[in-house]
Amino acid sequence: MTHRLLTLAPALSSQPWTLAPGSRLLALVLSALLLNACAIGPDYQRPDTTTPVAFKEAAGWRQANPSDALARGAWWELYGDAQLNDLVQTLNRSNQTVAQSEAQFRQAQALVRSARGAFFPSADLSVGKTRSSQGTGSSNSSLTSSSSGIRDTLNAQVGVSWEADVWGKLRRGLEANEASAQASLADLAAMRLSQQSELVQNYLQLRVIDQQKRLLQNTVVAYERSLKMSENQYRAGISGKDAVAQAQTQLRNTQANLIDLIWQRAQFENAIAVLTGQPPAGFTLAETQAVPALPQIPVSLPSQLLERRPDIASAERSIIAANANIGVAKAAYYPDFSLSLSGGYSSSTYEDWISVPNRFWSVGPKIALPLFDGGQRSAEVDRNEALYDQTVAKYRQTVLDGFREVENYLVQLKVLEDEAVVQQQALESARESLRLTSNQYKAGLIAYLDVVVVQATALSAERTVLNLQQSRLIASVNLITALGGGWDGNTDLSANEKAAQ
């Protein structure tokens, strides 16, 4: 289907400029439209969402209050580990996934600058030479030289054009690009928060593994003493060969578990290296003697979550862009108004090319209106309205997912806290049972098998406590991430970006 374009373009030449009545009327109408122009399409309104007054699982949690001692956005400092702080700062500078998102944001910023440039006139300069030929109209070609009718033309021309944004198409386009750039900024913040969360989780798990290694190393030393004692008692005829075999089995299993921790720690160390933009071969983290303590996490109101979480901010700004694009699509129904101006010099020879007799110019407004397009404009409007509905549904789902994540991590931390209390009591009982059983074995009152059982129970209780500590630390990171990386109520994404750098 061909696209027919209705064009009304009264032009002025280098003849004396006297506007015809129709041209004057067109100029007056165009001026009135420019002075009273309004943007076509709906103005943005935030979609309604169901926001609870408080989180269901927030009972017993400390209410959030901004902390002047804690840098805005530097949530990882809550764990009080200087090495972790340095690693996160390195991630902010060198993480390649964040670098990709940052480059995408710069692309979105460039589109905004391009959209703003559409409001200004465009100018171009062209200089060229053309050779053309026109027939003489005679059928007797033998009487005409081969060069007859050939003409060289030299042109130097400056052209200026400007489109009047009468219906707000350009303004809606700029609005869409600005919203997309803000969504890209929010995506950058979300990606940085995700990478920071992954690094902190890896680091905390690595430190728990260090603690497990020390536990197993101490256990191996204790089991080696038990094996030696069993061998001495066997040689003295106090115990049988089975006690030695049981002691050896227990020792070897524990040594195997210790070896298994080596590759687990290496995996976390390599992951941290990549997150900080470094090759694993040149990156090491020395073991430390302590695991970072679980921080006290305040909980903010659910309504603040909508403004702080970068994924929710990105989803909402995508709605703004989709809403503006509806206006761009609807503006296609209305005529385009533009003004063009051109002038220059044209001559058939280089001699006196740039001279007054060879100059030319033209100026005039133009109106262009598509008369028939086979329903393309209507389809484009429908497509953008459907896209708007899609982004609204995505925004609402993102909000629901945000509430769900916070509720899940709140209850997880509460349950893990209760479980840790009970498990600590079980560990103390296991330690006391091991002490009593070991004394009974040394006195020859019980067999070594009884000691092995109690030792295995005590070791399992020790490792369970460490695993619970790891789970609580990871859940705390997940909760902070679900809260948007903080709770100070700061909704300025650009400020958050600066704080994270």
UniProtKB/TrEMBL annotation:
Residues 130-149 have a biased composition (Low complexity). Belongs to the outer membrane factor (OMF) (TC 1.B.17) family. Its main location: membrane. The keyword Lipoprotein applies. It holds the Pfam family OEP. The keyword Phosphoprotein does not apply. Residues 126-149 are annotated as: Disordered. It comes from Pseudomonas weihenstephanensis. Gene3D superfamilies: Outer membrane efflux proteins (OEP) (1.20.1600.10). It is found in: Cell outer membrane. This is Efflux transporter outer membrane subunit. It is a lipid-anchor. Keywords: Cell outer membrane, Lipoprotein, Membrane, Palmitate, Transmembrane, Transmembrane beta strand.
